[in-house]
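name: query_chain
kind: protein
chains: 1
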Amino acid sequence: MNRLKAEAALKRFLMEDLGDGDASSVIFEHDEGGEAIVRAKADGVVAGLSVFEWGYALLDPALRVEKLKSDGEHVVAGDALVKISGSVAGILAGERVFLNLVQRMSAIATLTQQCVAALDSKHTRIVDTRKTTPGLRMFEKYAVRVGGGFNHRNGLYDAVMLKDNHIAAAGSIAEAVRKVRAAHGHIMPVEVEVETEEQLKEAIAAAPDVIMFDNQTPEGMTRWAAMVPAGIRTEASGGIDLEKLPAYRDTGVDVISIGALTHSVSNLDMSMNLTVSPKEEGR
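structure:
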């Protein structure tokens, strides 16, 4: 992840939660110290532990964060992931924001790893989509990479994807491809979505960089992939989930995009347990 972008996002998240300050922190003395351990409460792949490190540095540079596991590592319920030491008020101020984010990222990494294992292909890659949570795309796409998957385009700005509505507006696949090629530089990739064999043939003639097969059976994709010249990459999408992935193993497509990686996960449960340091005598 880009640390500068991540820190800017974490500042927004903290401001949303803290507002003008943690109203519960009045019960602590300003210099009261302690130690907190973040533990997994379920098995899975951990992702985003730098969120604790970078986030707490923003809240209080005096806080000490020690990562006890690494991103991409498989953990089991009860495993200690991170240790935070220092101001009790500072630790608790970031607890919920950082746990929420890391739990979600870890769930995405876990599902991605499961999909990669289920597909079990040396050729076909698992990739994500733009079906991400607004404001969290960078974090969620990083989690996909941690889980062994790959990223599709980051947004509308770094690749062209011509879907049914674009094609309808342009009048044809050929015209849509011609217009975007004329408007953009030579390094802008162009992808075309097809739903029928007639569209596939038109797309092949237009020579985009990628052709996406939308909502096709494994048998249909195998036949279509064999029709596409080697210079054009192929993508499968639509209705493909963890259970169905093995059936797509030998279709020959280059990538399978799965929106569920980022839009349908349930957080990997974690908790933070705090121990307050004993007060010195005479204080």
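note: The first strand starts at residue 33 and ends at 40.
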